[in-house]
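Translate sequence into structure tokens.
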Amino acid sequence: MFYIVFDFMMAVIMFLFGMWFYKSEGKAAKFLSGYNMKSADERKKYDENAMCKAYGKRMMFMSVPFIIGIIIDIQYQGIGSWIAWGIWLIMFVLLLIDRHKRER
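Result follows.
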């Protein structure tokens, strides 16, 4: 039961953070690492609203592995949580790679 609750909480947290970023109208951009360290002149080059919407969508999508983990954990306790974290980690690494390519 612990794994199901844990997966559910992670899914909710990821989804709510995603919604917050998506609806922030660019105000959440200050929480993006690296972006908040840029000078004001460099920040003017970016569309903060579009950037927050893109990251918000991605965060909401990153809650899906935990929902899948819940379904698997109902049948096989603990396995779903490990699978969810594995998928999430892959998604996170892909996000970092994509972000690195965009920054060049």
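Note: Residues 74 and 103 are 41 Å apart (CA to CA).
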